[in-house]
Amino acid sequence: MDPITAADQSERVNDGLPETLEEVVARYGQRWFKLKVGGDAQADVARLSAIASVLDRIPGAYHASLDGNEQYEDMAGVAELWSRMKAEPRLSASWTASSSSSSR
pLDDT tens digits for 53-73? Predict the structure, then answer.
């Protein structure tokens, strides 16, 4: 998984391009995000919370959709992810307000 912040990197590529989500947002001003989830609800919520901490600092609105790309084996796994997202205080209510996208 790509690093979210500089603290997530053990070493830099140093090719002149942004290497973290923070750097991408700062350089390109992204406002639309397609976020991959990996099929482990607990790990996915932890990662989404870390991403939210970066995206919530963007001035103005942003939009995010989740892409599970068949990572969850069944609807019960998806329901668990959704329940954990709704219960996570680091994910604002706007993250769980819609099943297709979120906006701040």
Answer: 999 998 888 999 999 888 999
